[in-house]
Amino acid sequence: MKAILKTIAAVAMFAFTAPAFAGGVTVANDGESKLKIGAKFYVNGTVTKSDDQTGTTGKTAGFALDRAYFSVGYDFDDTWSMGLTTDVSIESGLKKNSVVYIKKAYLQGKFSPAFVLQAGVIGTPWIGHEEHLWKHRYVSKVFVDTYKLDSSADAGIGVKGKLADGMVDYHITEINGAGYGNIKKTNSIDLNARIGFKPLDGLTLDIQFRDGYKGSKALDAVNQTNTPGTKHTLYQVMATYGTHDWRFGGAYINEKADDKAAVITTKNTGYNIWAWANFGNDFGAFGRYESLNVKKDGQAIDPKTTRYLLGLDWQARKNVNFSLAYDYSKTKNVGGNIANFAKNTKIGLFSQVKF
């Protein structure tokens, strides 16, 4: 408890000084051309504890840089533009844990609101869309990102747009499949698509379909050996309702992974519900519940994960947000053994600073 209080107190001090570091947006114009830059980072101070059937397996307390993004966009004219976003993340096991990725690097042609073409390392259809509705990515990823069922960006080509005065929107991509952390070519291309509907003011309905090998299928032309890979098929449906000051939502997810070499099928089924609200005077609250079942061929008992996330928000100023959050998850029947479990508890202060 002392460690928790010390960490929260230290992050609270950071909270009052952080607004001074928030920058602005620099825009340069040259005729029709326009240059834009932006940055965003997530910093947290947390205390975490892990337990399993043998007892406490780990404790940590301190500060972490969850993510740091820097983006540059250049509009050549009203149709053509380009974008570049770098992503700093922490990777364990390296001499220097901070690793810089190219998250996005693309050329875009916006021919009409109904047809926008992107090529390069591009955003995928679902994760960014749900993050925009959830609004608390700096505290928690969305379901398919948390459980590594999808990636937020990948190398490929995509089209998106809005139809029927914005009541329908679509986003369809053909991508390499392994995500922006591993964009190498393989022997397959994945389909990742979403279609959304807004039948009423404040109501959103979305459907996702993803199909492919996630970069696992390959052919070695030198040795003439084939890696059959694992075929993944994902379906997801989500509904949300709300206004500028509050929103609640829920989704159902079903993913099947067929390991072609081992001839083993794994089925992931889950759902999540979440909500957030602003109370006024720059304060608010949020909550999230997740459930995931994993069924694997030859496994007598299915592992099941449940997760609870609760928090309070404070918007210190425009583009500077802080959240005090409690995050608890438990997986039962680990490894298909009814006696095995894994628990993780995290409490701390999370922040987002951007311009």
- Overall geometry comes to globular
Question: How far from one another are the termini?
Answer: 35 Å
Task: Give the count of helical stretches.
Answer: 3
CATH topology: Porin
Q: Architecture in CATH?
A: Beta Barrel
Main sheet: strands, sense, barrel:
16 strands, antiparallel, barrel
Q: In what order do the strands lie side by side in the largest sheet?
A: 2-3-4-5-6-7-8-9-10-13-14-15-16-17-18-19
What is the mean predicted local confidence, pLDDT? 90
The helix-strand sequence is HEEEEEEHHEEEEEEEEEEEEE
Radius of gyration, CA atoms, in whole angstroms: 22 Å
Fraction of helical residues: under 10%
Q: Which class in CATH terms?
A: Mainly Beta
Identify the CATH homologous superfamily: Porin
Number of domains: 1
Report the sheet-strand fraction: over 45%
Unreliable stretches (pLDDT < 50, length at least 5) are 3-24
β-strand number: 19
